[in-house]
C-alpha cells in the first residue's frame, strides 16, 4: 500500500468521524487508567457499568485505597478477572501515591512500571489522557492493519511500529481510535461489513463481502 492511498484512507475515516475517542467513560487521567486496567477481556460497556458504581465513591488513588480490597471487588465484581484486576489496581494506587504524588505519570517508563500496565495500556493513557501520538494496538487494530494492508505485521509490536512510520502525521494522534472503531463496528472479525465500509475501494483485502 502506498502513501497516497493511506492518506486517503485516513482522510475518509476523519471525515466520517472527526473527533474520535475511547468509548470508556472517564474525566481524569486516573479514571482513564482505572477503566483501561479493568477493560482486559471485558467490553467497554461492561467496564462503564462498573465504573459508574465505582467512580462516584472512589475516583482517586487514595479513594480506592480507602475503599479497601473487598469494597473494590464488590464494585467491579461484574467484570471478568475482577480479583486480579482489583489486586493490580490497589498496588497501582499505592505506587501512584508513593512515587507520583497521586498523579498519573505521562511517560511510558513510569506507566509501564505500574502493576497491570503493559505497552498497550501505556499507549492508551499517553494518547488519550496526554495527547501524545501513540498507537495502542489491540485485536481490532491488529486485524484492520493486516486485513487492509495499511500496516501488515506478524505481531502487535511490528504492527505498532509500522503504523507509527506509515500513518500520515496529520492523522497520527487520532489514528488508533479510528482503527479500533473501524474494527469494532465495520471490519469485524468473522464477516467484515465491506458493503458499508467508507474505505472499501481503497482496502486491499482480497475476500471482501457484500454485508452492510
UniProtKB/TrEMBL annotation:
UniProt catalytic activity: 2'-deoxyribonucleotide-(2'-deoxyribose 5'-phosphate)-2'-deoxyribonucleotide-DNA = a 3'-end 2'-deoxyribonucleotide-(2,3-dehydro-2,3-deoxyribose 5'-phosphate)-DNA + a 5'-end 5'-phospho-2'-deoxyribonucleoside-DNA + H(+)
InterPro entries (alphabetical): DNA_glycosylase, Endonuclease-III-like_CS2, Endonuclease3_FeS-loop_motif, Endouclease-III_FeS-bd_BS, HhH-GPD_domain, HhH_base_excis_C, HhH_motif, Nth
Top-level lineage group: Bacteria
GO process annotations (BP): base-excision repair, AP site formation
Function: DNA repair enzyme that has both DNA N-glycosylase activity and AP-lyase activity. The DNA N-glycosylase activity releases various damaged pyrimidines from DNA by cleaving the N-glycosidic bond, leaving an AP (apurinic/apyrimidinic) site. The AP-lyase activity cleaves the phosphodiester bond 3' to the AP site by a beta-elimination, leaving a 3'-terminal unsaturated sugar and a product with a terminal 5'-phosphate.
Similarity comment: Belongs to the Nth/MutY family.
Official protein name in the record: Endonuclease III
Classification lineage: Bacteria, Pseudomonadati, Pseudomonadota, Gammaproteobacteria, Oceanospirillales
